[in-house]
Design a protein that fits this description.
Blueprint lengths: L1 H13 L32 E4 L5 E4 L10 E6 L4 E7 L4 E2 L2 E4 L5 E4 L2 E2 L3 E6 L4 E2 L3 E2 L8 E4 L5 E4 L10 E6 L4 E7 L8 E4 L5 E4 L16 E4 L5
Antiparallel strand pairs: 1-2, 2-3, 3-4, 5-8, 6-7, 7-9, 9-10, 9-11, 12-13, 13-14, 14-15, 16-17, 17-18
Length: 225
């Protein structure tokens, strides 16, 4: 009982006016938000990729009426956004993956989902479009330990995909990487410590119908190279 009384007194003192708790300038243990600049263009369903220098690259999305092609970079030192080149196409529900050399690989996305573009931080521009074997949006792109990128599933505008492709940074081309047992879109793909990739859930029918949410999972295993 004595320990309980002492603990209660200590808590009361810590919460009293003028204590260290109150001196935290109004911040709570849960944190607080502060302004961080404004985009040049409104966006939703875009991507935000952390660059090696601490800046954040924002690509694609739409403003409710049109697809965004302008990319922007947020600078943490100034909490401001600056233009960072324009993509050849608008991208929504795409992926943007940081490569080992600091470039960013942008894969697919509606409405023109059969293309890949690479953003170069040295010039802050996008390179020429590279075709995917299959159009995709709502897919996943997972960076593998050897620098390759595994692209899985998605939607091509007509049907859901069970196929996977793998991008090789040495040749900057895609090659086949097997097929899922189940078509999937809007799933997750997580790299495991042993190099395998765990694919979980997603859709296998149109979300308009409100059906087709998946409870299954699959594991992709890399082949010997």
């Amino acid at each position: 009982m004595r320990r309980l009384v002492i603990a209660s007194m200590a808590f009361a003192v810590s919460m009293a006016p003028g204590t260290a708790v109150e001196a935290e300038e109004g911040l709570t243990a849960a944190g607080a938000f502060s302004p961080a600049g404004s985009l040049a263009e409104a966006r939703l369903q875009h991507t935000a990729t952390l660059l090696p220098d601490g800046r954040v690259l924002v690509i694609g999305g739409m403003d409710g009426q049109r697809f965004n092609t302008l990319a922007e970079v947020w600078d943490p030192a100034t909490a401001t956004f600056a233009p960072a080149g324009s993509a050849a196409e608008g991208h929504v529900e795409h992926t943007a993956t940081l490569l080992a050399d600091g470039r960013v690989l942008v894969v697919g996305g509606a409405p023109t989902s059969a293309w890949v573009e690479i953003w170069d931080p040295a010039t802050e521009t996008f390179g020429p479009k590279v075709p995917l074997a299959e159009a995709r949006s709502g897919h996943t792109a997972t960076l593998l330990p050897d620098g390759r990128i595994l692209v899985i599933g998605g939607w091509d505008g007509t049907q859901y995909r069970a196929t996977a492709e793998i991008w090789d940074p040495a040749t900057e081309t895609f090659g086949p990487a097997g097929s899922l047992a189940q078509v999937r879109q809007k799933h997750t793909a997580t790299l495991l410590p042993d190099g395998r990739v765990l694919v979980v859930g997603g859709w296998d029918t149109g979300p308009v119908r409100g059906k087709g949410t998946l409870a299954s999972a699959e594991v992709w295993r890399p082949s010997d190279r």
